[in-house]
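Key result, reporting period 2: structure in, sequence out.
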């Protein structure tokens, strides 16, 4: 399938560094042409408070719901010349956040929970281990109430530190630029739609939308653009598979690289003549 005939997807997230980007690779693997545009810029805050919590935390567990929060911990850890104690537990949402925390030396629990509400329920299940020590929750300035509210309702002490601030830089798109948009955070949804003119909203609403998870899906629904599909897990592969399901004629049965040449076999449309299936 030529690049010109593939559906064009806008990935609304920050690109991986170093490259290659995991999401772009996952979308490419299912026959979609993906372009990444960052709509958020992050500024790290309260590093002295994080450093103090690292020194005073004792057996406290750390809670991360975004990779940026792990990065905030890593910056302080590098500056202070220390690593996480291997005995220190950490709770995290999603495989990306889990991997980032594990690289710092944490024993990570909860990555499969998928969202902050489910992670809060998991932490409450472990509450017997946490009642004597506070949970240190590193969050952004746009964090939602669900996780700390549920933890405190269960009688757990939660020490919140705003570890980063999010600056909004919404992209603009022209008619025909893309066929679909893949959304990776509720803050990204708000950034695009909050001040969009009716004409810009119409452009966005003309696209097919895929959400990384239920929280992002709810944010899209709240702005009048409910997603056509929500990923079954907060991973690049699951998001790409969900998006590919919206373009069934372009899904790939097999795609591999040989000697730097991409060889793909595509699924033929159901109405294709039988003879073409053998051609």
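The corresponding designed sequence is given below.
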């Amino acid at each position: 399938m030529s690049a010109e005939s593939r559906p064009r997807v806008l990935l609304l997230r920050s690109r991986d560094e170093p490259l290659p980007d995991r999401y772009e690779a996952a979308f490419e693997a299912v026959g979609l042409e993906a372009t990444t545009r960052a709509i958020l810029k992050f500024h790290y805050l309260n590093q002295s408070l994080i450093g103090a919590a690292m020194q005073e935390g004792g057996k406290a567990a750390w809670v991360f719901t975004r990779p940026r929060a792990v990065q905030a911990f890593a910056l302080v850890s590098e500056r202070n010349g220390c690593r996480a104690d291997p005995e220190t537990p950490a709770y995290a949402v999603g495989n990306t956040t889990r991997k980032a925390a594990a690289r710092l030396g944490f024993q990570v629990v909860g990555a499969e929970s998928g969202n902050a509400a489910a992670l809060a329920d998991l932490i409450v299940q472990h509450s017997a281990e946490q009642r004597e020590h506070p949970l240190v929750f590193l969050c952004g300035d746009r964090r939602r109430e669900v996780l700390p509210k549920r933890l405190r309702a269960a009688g757990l002490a939660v020490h919140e530190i705003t570890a980063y601030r999010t600056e909004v830089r919404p992209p603009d798109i022209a008619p025909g630029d893309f066929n679909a948009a893949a959304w990776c955070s509720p803050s990204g949804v708000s950034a695009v739609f909050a001040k969009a003119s009716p004409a810009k909203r119409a452009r966005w609403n003309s696209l097919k939308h895929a959400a990384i998870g239920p929280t992002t899906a709810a944010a899209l629904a709240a702005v009048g653009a409910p997603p056509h599909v929500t990923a079954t897990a907060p991973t690049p592969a699951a998001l790409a598979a969900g998006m590919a399901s919206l373009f069934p004629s372009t899904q790939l049965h097999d795609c591999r690289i040989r000697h730097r040449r991409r060889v793909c076999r595509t699924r033929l449309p159901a109405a294709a003549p039988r003879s073409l299936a053998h051609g």
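Residues 67-80 form the longest helix (14 residues). Residues 252-279 have pLDDT under 50 and may be disordered. This case is discussed further under Risks and Mitigation.
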